[in-house]
Amino acid sequence: VHSRCLSAPLESHSELDHLLTMVKKSVYLFGTERTEGDASMRELLGGKGANLAEMSALGLPVPAGLTLSTEVCTYYYQHDSTYPPGLRKQVANAIVAMEKVMGTRFGDRRNPLLLSVRSGARVSMPGMMETVLNLGLNDDIAEGLTALTGDERF
Q: Which of helix, strand or coil describes residue 22?
């Protein structure tokens, strides 16, 4: 599908419709502006993702974020360590939505969107999975934040 999409025009609208149905929703937003999901979606969003969506829907102060569905992991392992079609675009669109809500921009030296990446599962496994904090922080952004705040610890 990927090479076909890049190298040849589509024959008809029905071919386009067929390709679009192959791109399954994999990214679910949560936050004050928009929430896709709730506590009942534990199998799809994992426990943490479902609970974050539920708390957002209840109006609790949850920073904007996204959850990758558990189906992304399943697909990855069933398809030789590749990601589902359309995942990259869905993540990029979700990051743009988070930037708007948070008033920041991923990669911006003066006002960066920094992300936390947390593993999740359908069942709770405290301490068993890794967390990556401050995704998006690099030397250039750290220098920008230091200059902006006048504090190396910003």
A: helix
> How far, in Å, CA of 50 to CA of 54, rounded?
6
Residue 54 burial class via C-beta count within 10 angstroms: exposed 0-12, middle 13-18, buried 19 and up: buried
- The answer to whether 131 and 112 have CB atoms below 8 angstroms apart is no
* Rounded Cα distance, 53 and 132, in Å: 20
How much of the chain, in percent, has pLDDT values that exceed 70? 84
Give the global pTM: 0.78
Alpha carbons 98 and 63: distance in angstroms, whole number: 9
Q: What is the dihedral of CA 47, 71, 130, 58, to 10 degrees?
A: -30
Residues 101-133: tens digit of each pLDDT: 999 999 999 999 999 999 876 667 777 888 999
Residue listed under structure tokens 């743009």 = 96
Q: Which of 46, 44, 26 is nearest to 128 (CA)?
A: 46
Query: Which domains does the chain show, CATH number per domain?
Result: 25-149 (3.30.1490.20)
